[in-house]
Design goal:
This protein is an alpha/beta fold and 312 residues long. It folds into two domains: 206 residues, NAD(P)-binding Rossmann-like Domain (Rossmann fold); 83 residues, N-(1-d-carboxylethyl)-l-norvaline Dehydrogenase, domain 2 (Orthogonal Bundle), CATH 1.10.1040.10. It is 45% helix and 13% strand. Helix 3 crosses helix 4, helix 9 packs across helix 11 and helix 9 packs across helix 12. The longest helix is centred in the first third of the chain and has 20 residues.
């Protein structure tokens, strides 16, 4: 359902929740949080809740993926201790963290966040898995950056407890969580999620469900135009990024950001928005070519930039 549809029901995101300028108080975080998917985003979400004091269980599909998720989260914990962004010792944080292949880990969670890859059918099956194993009072959230929350909610028996909780990469450094309100999201659940976002030290920006929400829709269109400019020889990748960093105060240029996010992820989002919103989101051929060649950005060592040890 689009924002226009939600407003026609008298239930716009602003009327049912809060704006970016928070009018509420922070909320006590859930004692137990579940995360389905321990990749870069899932690990970042787990790390954020661990630092804030929650117990966190990450569920992955097999032992190898579990080990990868554990390494990512534990590495992030060590980095936080080195930067003195936490006063807790490693052992105390690690004791609150579990990685498993069992969905039963979600049974006592007050919040479970789906953080699997941006593939519609995978999101749907993952959310059904979560709903089958959680308490009826548990809030279910998706970290999707573009897929319709109402579409995903249609696969659930209890859509009123479901919202979008779109974190940004890297999760610890980002100050934003986009809270996406579906047509059937319970206002009390929305308010609770906004409070949790503030308690994590982040600002909740609340939007009605629409393709790409606010952040992805704006961010992707800038990123795609930057790729087209590179494709057309307007300027080098370095100079295109410098124009946005120096001229518009972007913290990182759109091409470097695409590398950090992953060009395959960027392509998937662009294809979805192209399908939903039309020609202006058509993926440039250069983006398709790089993904086909396996040049996915930082995670493969090469995208629009060359990367070594996570740095371009």
């Amino acid at each position: 359902m689009s924002e226009t549809d939600a407003v026609s029901r008298g239930e716009s995101a602003v009327s049912r929740g809060e704006s970016a300028v928070s009018r509420g108080e922070s909320a006590v975080l859930p004692g137990e949080v579940g995360v389905l998917g321990g990749g870069r985003m899932g690990a970042g979400i787990a790390h954020a809740f661990l630092l804030a004091g929650s117990r966190v269980s990450v569920v992955e599909r097999d032992a190898e993926q579990c080990e990868g998720a554990r390494e990512r989260v534990e590495s992030a914990i060590h980095a936080s201790i080195e930067r003195a962004t936490t006063q807790e010792e490693f052992g105390a944080l690690a004791d609150r963290f579990t990685v498993t292949t069992s969905d039963e880990a979600f049974e006592t969670a007050a919040l479970v966040i789906e953080a699997v890859p941006e593939v519609h059918d995978l999101k749907v099956s993952s959310l059904r898995r979560i709903e089958a194993h959680v308490d009826r009072e548990c809030v279910i959230a998706s970290n999707t950056s573009s897929i319709s929350i109402d579409d995903l909610a249609g696969s659930l028996e209890t859509p009123e407890r479901f919202v979008g909780m779109h974190f940004f990469n890297p999760v610890p450094a980002s100050s934003l969580i986009e809270v996406v309100v579906g047509a059937r999201s319970d206002p009390a659940v929305v308010s609770k999620v906004q409070g949790w976002a503030r308690t994590l030290g982040k600002t909740p920006v609340t939007v009605s469900d629409a393709p790409g929400f606010a952040s992805s829709r704006l961010g992707v269109i800038v990123g795609l135009e930057a790729i087209r400019m590179l494709e057309e020889g307007v300027a080098s990748a370095e100079d295109i990024d410098a124009a946005m960093v120096l001229g518009y105060r972007y913290p990182v240029g759109p091409l470097r950001l695409a590398d950090i996010v992953g060009l395959d992820v960027r392509l998937g989002i662009a294809e979805y928005l192209y399908e939903q919103l039309g020609e202006r989101f058509a993926p440039p051929q250069l983006l398709r070519d790089k993904v086909a060649a396996g040049e996915l950005g930082r995670k493969t060592g090469r995208g629009f930039f060359e990367w070594s040890g996570g740095q371009a």
